[in-house]
Design brief:
By secondary structure, the chain is of the alpha/beta class. It has one domain: NAD(P)-binding Rossmann-like Domain (Rossmann fold, 3-Layer(aba) Sandwich), CATH 3.40.50.720. It has 8 helices and 7 strands, in the order βαβαβαβαβαβαααβ. The longest helix has 28 residues. It is globular and about 50 Å long. The relative contact order is 0.16. The model has no long low-confidence stretch (mean pLDDT 96).
Length: 251
């Protein structure tokens, strides 16, 4: 369907060399978009780009640095001639009681999860203007809406992602730039495998509380990302859409 066709569009997906990022990148590529993956691991990124095919590439960098964000946007435009879609997915987490976090750990999590997204939105803005508008999709979390005691800095960063998306949506709507957030639930990734090992009873809790009765897979987010990147969502901005199998609505 034309409403969901991304042919001729170019996207950046940070953290796109694995997990949720790769699942989203795969969906965008299948819908016709050219995709620039971004991350720190060159070998892993190159391998992910090869899986996506000829219309994908990888750029290594640190998106917590403004200069690297600008270089990523420039590399995307140099490779594909344009930028239409930005997916801010890079993220990290540390799990421990809040009183045990160091100042350095707090800043590392906030910089990786929130500051990087803002810097890349700034870097992408001129190119989105040049192409007549575009789509920004920021990856939040269930922790944008609900909290847990073992990951307070992560929760703060993901709450910030949702509010930042709303603020940017109001600022840039007149430029035909829609900004939305996807709020994944418990998805099977390397990061959540670590959470299973660190949080006693987590797997059982997730299965018991999730009406869908299972953990999500990165592929479960692909369709939502395509929708938010496509003309079908042109009148949707400033939203946060949970993709969690019903976890967040169950008492």
């Amino acid at each position: 369907m034309q409403m969901f066709d991304l042919t001729g569009k170019a996207a950046i997906v940070t953290g796109g060399n694995g997990g949720i990022g790769f699942g989203i990148a795969e969906g965008l590529a299948e819908a016709g978009a050219s995709v620039m993956l971004a991350g720190r691991n060159q070998a892993k990124g190159d391998a992910a780009a090869r899986k996506l095919g000829a219309k994908a590439a990888f750029t290594a960098g640190d998106v917590t640095r403004k200069a690297d964000c600008e270089l990523l946007v420039a590399a995307t435009v140099a490779r594909f001639g344009r930028l239409d879609i930005l997916v801010n997915n890079a993220g990290t987490s540390i799990r421990q009681p809040p009183q045990n976090f160091t100042e350095a750990q707090w800043h590392h999590i906030l910089d990786t999860n929130l500051t990087s997204a803002f810097l890349l939105c700034q870097a992408a803005y001129p190119e989105l203007l040049r192409t007549g508008g575009g789509k920004i999709i920021n990856i939040g979390s269930l922790n944008s809406l609900i909290a847990a005691p073992h990951n307070v800095p992560y929760t703060a960063s993901k709450g910030g992602i949702l509010q930042m998306s709303r603020g940017l949506a109001t600022a840039w709507a007149a430029n035909n730039i829609q900004v939305n957030a996807i709020l994944p639930g418990w998805i099977e990734t390397e990061m959540t495998e670590g959470a299973k090992a660190q949080v006693p009873g987590l797997n059982e809790n997730v299965l018991a509380r999730t009406p869908a009765g299972r953990w999500g897979k990165p592929r479960d987010l692909a369709g939502l990302a395509v929708f938010l990147a496509a003309p079908a969502s042109d009148f949707i901005t400033g939203t946060g859409i949970a993709a969690d199998g019903g976890y967040s609505i169950r008492a």
